[in-house]
Amino acid sequence: MEFIELTEGAARLYVPRAEVPTRRLPAFYNPAMRVNRDIAVAIARVHGQRRPLLVCEPLCGAGARAVRYALEAGARVVAADVNPQAVEIARHNAQLNKVSNRVYVEHSDARLLLHRYAFRNERFSIVDVDPFGSPVPFLDAAVCATLAEGILAATATDTAALFGTYPTKCVKKYAAKSIRAPFSKEIGLRILLAAVAWAACRHDCGIEPLCAYTERHYARVYVRILPRPGAVTRTSKNIGRLMLCSSCGYFSPLRGIIGPQPSTCPHCGKALSVAGPLWIGPYGDPRFCAEAVKQAPSAEAVKLLKSVLEEAATPLGGYHTHHLAAKLGKPPPSSRQVVKLLRERGFIATVAHYDPRVVKTDASFEEVVALLSSL
Ligand SMILES: [Zn+2]
């Protein structure tokens, strides 16, 4: 295997050369995840403003993220990988960047590492679970190893399951139904948030989503862990279902995961589909995201964080302007124009970060249809 040296953020990294990153690499490194790591740095900088940063990265691969947490956010980092070659490469990368006194790399299974630190009552201010595939197998251990008010970050790369291409896989992994919809990506992101929320509730903790987004081939969530009974109750109330009409585009959230649900669309009378359980509350904290924007180390990270910041005030779901316009016999409108007109009418509106054709707004289905009909 050939290795190369490259720059990412402030770090020099020694990584395997690969056209397509796979699990079989001696140390996993995916250059396409740079923006993911840029945002991780921004969020760690915000979280570190008021407390010392001790970060755990239990699936560290080549150590790019661990080194960047130390180098760019001033964190002390406990990193681990089950692959001994990856451990050697991550240690080498820590030395290369002169942070080996702050990046401690262990050869360990991720869950064992997290439970070991939790058992010793040495919890982390940030636990970052960044697996190849779903983070679900690691969430319970990650919650246990996160300090009160600390941040749990999780990446999911099994987007075909979450975004409705393979709904059966989603049921198996997340105990939730994903669905093909105009805003499938948001539904998948909310299913992932619900999985993190369940894991927290199982350990008598609530969550508060700080930032959640999807980019390229992955979904990513950051939540604050709150070990308080009130927070657990609030969290469980934010897990519900989504009803969606594939015929006319109407949708509505439904509180709770059990109980009666309408079977026909109130707008067109066709059958409704149901997705979830999923997170039905906001998926961003505007104040936290605004701070993260100031700390972001790249233009791409700033752009994504600003989008999540704007979406934080909008309710669940979005309107696919091209699909709706086609049903009304109209040419596809500009999403920016639709947003402008909705704002002029006093609504909150923004273009969704996950699809430039989707508009998120607090306007009702009927109000959006009326606006598109008038164009
Ligand atoms: Zn309908």
Describe the model:
The protein is an alpha/beta fold. The protein has two domains: 3-311, 3-Layer(aba) Sandwich (Rossmann fold); 319-373, N2,N2-dimethylguanosine tRNA methyltransferase, C-terminal domain (Phenylalanyl-tRNA Synthetase, Chain B, domain 1, 2-Layer Sandwich). 39% of the residues lie in helices and 24% in strands. It has 14 helices and 15 strands. Strand 6 (124-129), helix 5 (136-144) and strand 7 (146-156) form a beta-alpha-beta unit. The mean pLDDT is 95. The structure holds zinc ion. Zinc ion binds next to loops.
Features:
seven-stranded mixed β-sheet; binds zinc ion; Rossmann fold; Phenylalanyl-tRNA Synthetase, Chain B, domain 1; 14 helices; globular; alpha/beta; 2 domains; 24% strand
**Attached small molecules:** zinc ion
Query: What do the pLDDT scores average to?
Result: 95
Protein structure class: alpha/beta
Number of helices: 14
Largest sheet, order of strands side by side?
Answer: 5-4-3-6-7-9-8
Question: Any idea what the radius of gyration is?
Answer: 21 Å
Secondary structure: number of strands: 15
CATH top level of the largest domain? Alpha Beta
Outline the secondary-structure elements.
Layout: E1 3-8, E2 11-16, H1 34-47, E3 54-57, H2 64-73, E4 76-81, H3 84-96, E5 103-107, H4 110-119, E6 124-129, H5 136-144, E7 146-156, H6 159-162, H7 167-174, H8 184-202, E8 206-215, E9 218-226, H9 229-237, E10 239-244, E11 251-255, E12 273-279, H10 286-295, H11 299-311, E13 319-320, H12 321-327, H13 335-344, E14 349-351, E15 358-361, H14 365-373
Parallel strand pairs: 3-4, 3-6, 4-5, 6-7
Antiparallel strand pairs: 1-2, 7-9, 8-9, 10-11, 10-12, 13-15, 14-15
Helix pairs in contact: 1-2, 1-10, 1-11, 4-5, 5-8, 10-11
Zinc ion (ZN) is lined by residues 245, 247-248, 250, 265, 267-268, 270.
